[in-house]
Design a protein that fits this description.
The protein is of the alpha/beta class. It has helices at 37-49, 62-76, 98-108, 130-139; strands spanning 4-10, 25-31, 52-59, 90-93, 118-124. It has a five-stranded parallel beta sheet with strand order 1-5-2-3-4, with helices on both faces. Helix 1 (37-49) packs across helix 2. The longest helix is centred in the middle third of the chain and has 15 residues, at 62-76.
Length: 140
């Protein structure tokens, strides 16, 4: 099945929707505004729990997002061994354009054992911009 993009906007502090229907998926987390450490942890745990099997962070404090998603994934398996089909690669792109991140995702974001059916474009910002982001993703 072809990997299809799904745009999802979240305002900082907002409760995330149930996106487990998109399992298994790649998440491109675009952070365009400041968030609290607690909310970052909540969203990272939500990504892990809803079936994200490849996470790419871009924008403000993207390296922290990479670390927190890794931590939440390890915590889910009590810092021990996890099933091969639950492996969760993460990466962050601090000094890249969004177009470069989308191109990387399309060309290289692959799970070693699971076909990723969707790409969730998680846009963390004060207001949505779905048309522009979906257009940039399509053009990458």
């Amino acid at each position: 099945m072809k990997n299809r993009p799904v745009y999802l906007h979240l305002k900082p502090g907002a409760d995330p929707a149930d996106i487990s229907a998109f399992y298994p998926y790649t998440a491109i987390v675009m952070i365009e505004t400041d968030v609290t450490p607690e909310w970052r942890s909540t969203i990272s745990r939500w990504l892990v729990d809803t079936g994200c099997l490849y996470m790419i962070a871009w924008g403000r404090e993207c390296a922290l997002w990479d670390d927190v998603v890794d931590w939440c994934h390890m915590e889910k398996y009590d810092f021990g061994v996890y099933p091969e089909d639950s492996f969760l690669p993460t990466s962050w792109f601090e000094n890249y354009t969004l177009e470069e991140v989308f191109e990387f995702a399309k060309m290289h974001a692959r799970h070693p054992t699971v076909e990723l059916l969707h790409t969730v474009l998680l846009h963390i910002s004060a207001s949505p911009d779905d048309e522009k982001i979906l257009e940039k993703y399509a053009d990458a």
